[in-house]
UniProtKB/TrEMBL annotation:
Protein name: RNA methyltransferase
SUPFAM superfamilies according to UniProt: S-adenosyl-L-methionine-dependent methyltransferases
Family membership noted in the UniProt record: Belongs to the methyltransferase superfamily.
Domain of life: Eukaryota
Entry GO terms, CC: cytoplasm
Keyword Nucleotidyltransferase appears in the UniProt entry: no
Species the sequence originates in: Lutzomyia longipalpis
One of the protein's GO biological processes: methylation
Gene3D superfamilies associated with the record: Vaccinia Virus protein VP39 (3.40.50.150)
Record's keyword terms, sorted: Methyltransferase, S-adenosyl-L-methionine, Transferase
Length: 238
């Protein structure tokens, strides 16, 4: 496992982060605002006949939304629910673990989903006698994968997640968010080296949707209205 820390002085500009690991993320994108556009009808229809629901939250930050989603989905299912929250930033995972109100059901790990060694995911699934997750949350993560790993990296990421889960939930950032991230990094005298080589640009959120449907054989089953941050929640059956 590779733990990658954000070494920029976030006191100067908390928005100039390489991996999207904002220390104050929930101050400007509250879990409640995001959850308000989630559907209520998808959480009691599963491929698995198991008595539990397994959820993977990729880029869980400090776990605020992870815990809120646990309470949300608990309202719509009688099955036991277990969530694995992962993030690239060990300090955020430490904070999530310290504030975990559901220790029997929610586990946090510092893990880079793009690393070749993913034994922790396999071990978690094996512990629950499962091969896949029922739900995978990928909320405002695609841009950071894209900026750090390029077009091919994002394709690989989307294929990996769609192969790991029954329902994939995405919240792709539009292109203007890329421009803002690059501008902040430039101001901090840093850069995303792969940015200039990206081919997926204008309409990147629609391109992600098309890739999931055509290349990953995933079917879009829900598209939300926009949040106040001009983003939508998409749900796919994989």
């Amino acid at each position: 496992m590779q733990e990658q820390q954000e070494v920029t002085t976030q006191k100067e500009d908390p928005g100039a982060v390489l991996f999207g690991n904002f220390i104050n993320y929930y101050q400007f994108n509250t879990p409640e605002e995001r959850l308000s556009v989630f559907p209520s009808h998808l959480w009691n229809n599963w491929k698995s006949q198991d008595e539990k629901i397994l959820i993977l939250d990729v880029g869980c930050n400090a776990g605020d939304f992870t815990q809120l989603f646990y309470k949300f989905i608990s309202k719509y299912s009688t099955r036991d629910i277990y969530i694995l929250g992962i993030d690239i930033d060990s300090s955020l995972i430490e904070r999530a673990s310290e504030n975990n109100a559901f220790e029997k059901n929610i586990t946090y790990l510092c893990l880079d989903i793009m690393e070749g060694n993913k034994e922790e995911l396999s071990d978690y699934l094996a512990f629950h006698n499962r091969e896949n997750f029922d739900v995978t949350l990928c909320l405002s993560i695609t841009m950071w994968i894209h900026l750090n790993h390029g077009d091919n990296g994002l394709r690989s990421f989307l294929k990996q997640l769609s192969s790991l889960t029954d329902i994939l939930v995405t919240e792709p950032q539009p292109w203007k968010c890329y421009q803002t991230a690059v501008r902040r990094m430039t101001k901090a005298k840093r850069k995303f080296p792969l940015f200039k080589d990206l081919q997926w640009r204008t309409g990147v959120d629609a391109t992600i949707n098309d890739f999931l449907e055509m290349e990953c054989q995933s079917k879009k089953v829900f598209e939300s209205t926009e949040t106040k941050w001009k983003r939508k929640i998409y749900c796919y059956r994989c």
